[in-house]
Amino acid sequence: MTLRGFGTVLLLAAAAAAIAAPARAQSGDPAAGAYCEPAPQTKLLYSNRGYLILPKPADAPPLAYSYSILGTERSVVRAGQFLFDDGGDRWAFESNPEGLTQFWPLKPQKQFDITRINRYTRGKALVSFVVVGTESIDVGGRSYKSWKIRRTDHMEGGSTTTQLLWYSPDLCTLSAFTDSQQRTVTLLRVLKPGDRDYNRPLARRDGKLVFTDTGEAVK
Q1: Per-residue pLDDT tens for 150-177?
Q2: Within 10 Å of residue 72's Cβ, how many Cβ atoms?
Q3: Per-residue DSSP letters for 83-110?
Q4: Quick check: bond before 30 cis, omega within 30?
Q5: Domain ranges in the chain?
Q6: CATH topology of domain 16-211
C-alpha cells in the first residue's frame, strides 16, 4: 500500500477451527510482545483484500515480509509487517532495515524511528512507531490481546500522516489497523493449506473481498 493509503485493519472473524497456529520467529509468552509472523502459504483474508504469505528470499533481512496479493499478479517484499502495502510503494529505506529488530519485543511506550526515501523524487520521510499499550480485540467470539501501535509518517516539507495498528501475538499478524481515511478494514479469516475454502478464487469487488465462484462476500 502506498504512503497515502497504507493501512488496512485486520479483525479476525473466522471460527476457531479455521485458525491454525502461526509459526513463531521467537519463542515465549505471546503477551510479552516477542515477534512472530504467519507461516508461508497462509492466506489472510481481509474485508476488502487478501494476502498469501510467501517464503522469504534467502538474503532477506530478519523481519522481511513477503506476500502476494490475491486476485492479482502482484508480489511484494517489505522490510517488516508494519510496513506492508499493496505493491505500489515508491519508498526505500535510507537507514538499515535490520534496525527494525530493535522494536521487539513490544512494550508500552517503546519507540522506533526509521528514514525512508522516495525512489523517484528523492524526498525523505521519518517513520515513527510508538507502542501505545494493549487492547482486547473481539474476533469471532474470542478476545485477542493486541498491541496498539501508532505509526506516524513525517514527510519532508511538512505533511504528516498517522495510522493505528493492532498486532496480535496470538495470530502473529495485525488484528486491526486504520487506513489513510481512518477507516477500519477487518481480517475476516486465516486459511491454511487443506482448510475449507483455501483453494477458492478471490477478487476485490465494490470494495469487498469476494469468492469469485459464487460472488459471495468473504465472512
Answers
A1: 999 898 888 898 999 989 899 899 888 8
A2: 13
A3: G--SS---EEESS-GGGGGGG-S--TT-
A4: no
A5: 16-211
A6: YmcC-like fold (2.40.360)
